[in-house]
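Summary of Year 1 activities. Much of the first year was spent building the evaluation harness for sequence design. The harness presents a backbone, in tokenized form, and records the residue chosen at every position. We chose the following record to illustrate the format because it has been used consistently in internal testing since the harness was completed.
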């Protein structure tokens, strides 16, 4: 009987490894196929004009879209970063309080809201309600609302992963709560917090639906107005130009997809490199 159970467990274990390995191979093939398809369509479209000229209808370059994506991504992280990190600190340090549980629940709910719903919220409140029209500020705030819970939860988990003895030793030496948090705990998990910020940046960079409602689209580069000025961005080029019946539009769409993929991979790999180096130090 014992031998039968042993062999049964071995067979089930082997079967589990085979199934997991099969799914891993399928996902790997899908990822490689996507990357090859993007590279095959995007690399032929790379040239100097792509980075120096704005779009002209469904042709031209992507200077305006690259600039707009950088502005929206940086703006959303600058807004969401302090709020998300502060919220994460509160949830970690006051985790037993009722309000902390409410904030954690609201953050989890916000993660599950579709981004297009957040875009509609931004359109109603900022584009129409505040009269900002399509603008970089409306788009950045909408993206910030979307990525704030990710930053908050990443910060909370980073702080909770620290050993309790670190916090206890700081308090035993007479340190106040702000000193413990900002001089002891945060420096000890800065790599994980920074990783959360970078991954949130990659997430906001790849969004389209919220920006259609709040930023619109423009063939021109940014003139420096936070409101009342639509903006170009790479994900709109991918979403819109691929449906046009022109070869130039398809080339721009694949080039935009290649740039977005490159930026996202660079951010992801950079965050892992930073985390590994900070962990070693």
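For this record, the design step produced the sequence shown next.
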């Amino acid at each position: 009987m014992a031998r039968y159970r042993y062999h049964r467990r071995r067979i089930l274990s082997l079967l589990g490894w085979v199934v997991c390995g099969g799914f891993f191979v399928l996902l790997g093939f899908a990822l490689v196929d996507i990357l090859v398809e993007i590279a095959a369509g995007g690399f032929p479209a790379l040239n100097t004009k792509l980075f120096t000229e704005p779009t002209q209808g469904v042709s031209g370059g992507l200077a305006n879209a690259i600039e707009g994506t950088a502005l929206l991504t940086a703006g959303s992280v600058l807004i969401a970063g302090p709020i998300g990190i502060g919220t994460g600190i509160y949830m970690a340090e006051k985790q037993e309080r009722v309000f902390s549980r409410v904030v954690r629940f609201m953050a989890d709910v916000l993660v599950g809201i579709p981004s297009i719903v957040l875009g509609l919220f931004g359109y109603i409140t900022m584009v129409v309600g505040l009269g900002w029209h399509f603008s970089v500020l409306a788009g950045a705030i909408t993206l910030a609302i979307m990525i704030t819970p990710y930053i908050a939860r990443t910060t909370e988990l980073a702080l909770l992963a620290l050993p309790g003895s670190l916090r206890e030793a700081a308090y035993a030496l007479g340190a106040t709560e702000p000193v413990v948090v900002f001089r002891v705990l945060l420096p000890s998990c800065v790599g994980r917090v920074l990783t959360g910020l970078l991954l949130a940046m990659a997430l906001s960079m790849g969004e389209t639906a919220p920006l259609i409602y709040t930023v619109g689209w423009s063939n021109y580069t940014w003139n420096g107005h936070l409101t009342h000025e639509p903006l170009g961005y790479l994900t709109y080029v991918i979403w819109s130009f691929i449906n046009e019946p022109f070869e130039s539009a398809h080339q721009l769409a694949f080039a935009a997809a290649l740039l977005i993929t490159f930026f996202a991979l660079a951010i992801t790999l950079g965050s892992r490199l930073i985390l590994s180096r900070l962990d070693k130090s």
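The CA atoms of residues 173 and 180 lie 10 Å apart. Quantitative recovery figures across the full test set are reported in Table 2.
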